[in-house]
Amino acid sequence: MTVSFGDVKNSLSKRELQILTILSQVKIINYDEINALWEDEIPTQNAVRSFIKHLRKKLPENLLKNRNGFGYVIENNI
After folding, report:
1. pLDDT digits (tens, 9 = 90+) for 15-68
2. 65 CA to centre of own chain
3. Does the domain spanning 2-74 belong to CATH 1.10.10.10?
4. Which DSSP symbol is given to 59?
5. pTM value?
6. Inter-helix orientation angle 45-56/14-26, to 10°
7. Which residue ranges make up each domain of the chain?
């Protein structure tokens, strides 16, 4: 699966696609929902941060925002 914005196309992993699918439907994903995507293990906070950082590089700047203590939200100001 790929995501494209303008002329830029990026491949998505299964988890990245799952997160973007949830965000496209409800506009916010909480930490429990993110943790559930790892199925057999609970990721560390650092693993989730690293994953989100990598995903943000594939998206337009400032699209994916953190809601401290809750999760992540899409802010569509494009």
Report:
1. 999 998 988 898 889 988 999 998 888 899 899 999 999 999 999 888 999 998
2. 9
3. yes
4. S
5. 0.83
6. 80
7. 2-74
Q: What is the C-alpha to C-alpha distance for residues 10 and 41, in angstroms, rounded to an integer?
A: 27
Type and span of the H or E element at 34: helix 31-36
CA dist 49 and 66 (Å) reads: 10
**47-71 burial code (b ≥16 CB/10 A, e <16):** ebeebbeebbebbeeebbeeeeeeb
User: C-alpha angle 66/21/56, rounded to 5°?
Assistant: 40
Strand-pair partners of 2: 11
